[in-house]
């Protein structure tokens, strides 16, 4: 009777290369991926934190229209000049939804940016904001880790972008490594469930493999949409892939803003903010997420009116430009509304909302939180697998280490 061979089947060259890439690329990028994913967990809930901690941004809704911009600006101007003890030029005014306060902004000095929050129904001064709140400061810190690994942007951005590209490769090689050679009842259980009754090494292995599998598609979407902000070549290629067009500017928009006609030196109207406000409210009736009027700073600058129809997302935001002297509307690529875009352009416009998980509100932010948390756990559980590879626990049977090693290679 022939003796049965006990030698382990050799892995293919493709499998060996795949596992080598997954191991060493994971070790090389692990710390950056951990920081980027963990900081993303905090960032997704910034709106909720701001809502509860910055009470000056909220007002009691009233059954009457907002005050015209000129009235709010007059109250803000008087308050700012008294607070600063000198003449102040307001940069613009922003309205929110029915339960949000309005605010006017100004620069008291170079490098400083203050805001005056007002009740849009009464004009009452609610808050004089002279810098980031504690909640904002925390999220600025979290964003610095997420975008730049706490380094200067020119250094940190390519590091984060490169780590994210490696992370995409790791997810693909991890899926190949995870995929069983044969689908049996045993391999299905190991591939889709966590054996909480096993020893801690096996549980750690399951956390890495199983959670990584379930988070894969969403994690890929979050990661790929984020690489856009690190590399212009990736941004341009991504835009071309979705739209079939070549970008003429940054993030699908022209870098050239329209300019006011500087040959016209006289203005034939007063209170342009009220004229624009009435125009916008007439053409865009109903509630909106945010509406901002920005005033010209130089002779060539136009008035800018940025409209966000929805609160909590930005992909439907568009900006309209008006000549400084005539208030004639100036054409711009930024004025195109979401509904006017092609399917690829719409998807590209959604990129930021997809990346931060706010595309469909709170449910997708919760999903992004858990997927980011799993993403942060993968370098940790992966490192533990590598560090304890081949090491047997004194409290576990000899067969346990073999089982984990066999499972790791499936």
TrEMBL record:
KW rRNA-binding (keyword) present: no
TM region positions: 21-45, 159-179, 211-234, 366-388
Keyword annotations: Membrane, Transmembrane, Transmembrane helix
The UniProt record lists the keyword Oxidoreductase: no
PANTHER family hit by this protein: BLL7967 PROTEIN, IRON-REGULATED INNER MEMBRANE PROTEIN-RELATED
Protein's name according to its UniProt entry: PepSY domain-containing protein
Organism of origin: Spirosoma endbachense
């Amino acid at each position: 009777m022939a003796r049965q061979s006990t030698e382990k089947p050799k892995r293919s060259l493709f499998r060996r290369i795949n596992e080598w890439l997954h191991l060493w690329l994971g070790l090389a990028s692990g710390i950056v991926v951990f920081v980027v994913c963990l900081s993303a967990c905090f960032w997704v809930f910034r709106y909720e934190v701001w809502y509860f901690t910055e009470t000056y941004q909220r007002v009691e809704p009233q059954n009457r229209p907002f005050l015209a911009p000129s009235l709010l600006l007059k109250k803000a101007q008087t308050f700012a000049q008294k607070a600063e003890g000198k003449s102040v030029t307001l940069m613009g005014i922003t309205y929110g939804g029915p339960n949000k306060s309005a605010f006017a902004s100004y620069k008291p000095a170079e490098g400083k940016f203050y805001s005056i929050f007002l009740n849009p129904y009464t004009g009452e001064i609610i808050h004089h904001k002279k810098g980031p709140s504690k909640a904002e400061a925390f999220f600025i810190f979290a964003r610095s880790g997420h975008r730049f690994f706490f380094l200067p942007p020119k250094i940190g951005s390519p590091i984060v972008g490169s780590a994210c590209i490696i992370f995409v490769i790791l997810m693909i090689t991890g899926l190949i490594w995870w995929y069983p050679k044969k689908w049996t009842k045993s391999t299905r259980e190991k591939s889709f469930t966590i054996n909480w009754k096993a020893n801690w090494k096996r549980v750690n292995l399951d956390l890495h493999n199983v959670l990584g599998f379930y988070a894969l598609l969403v994690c890929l979407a979050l990661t790929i949409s984020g690489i856009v902000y690190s590399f212009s070549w990736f941004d341009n290629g991504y835009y071309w892939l979705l739209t079939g067009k070549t970008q003429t500017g940054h993030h699908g928009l022209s870098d050239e803003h329209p300019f006011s006609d500087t040959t016209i030196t006289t203005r034939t109207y007063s209170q342009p903010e009220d004229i624009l406000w009435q125009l916008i409210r007439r053409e865009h009736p109903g509630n909106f997420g945010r509406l901002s009027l920005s005033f010209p700073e130089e002779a060539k600058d136009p008035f800018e009116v940025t409209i966000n129809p929805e609160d909590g997302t930005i992909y439907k935001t568009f900006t309209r430009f008006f000549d400084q002297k005539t208030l004639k509307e100036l054409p711009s690529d930024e004025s195109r509304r979401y509904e006017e875009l092609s399917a690829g352009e719409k998807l590209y416009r959604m990129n930021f909302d997809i990346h931060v998980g706010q595309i469909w509100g709170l449910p997708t932010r919760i999903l992004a939180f858990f997927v980011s948390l799993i993403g942060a756990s993968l370098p940790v559980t992966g490192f533990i697998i590598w560090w304890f590879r081949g090491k047997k626990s004194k409290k576990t049977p000899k067969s346990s280490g073999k089982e984990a090693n066999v499972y790791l290679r499936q």
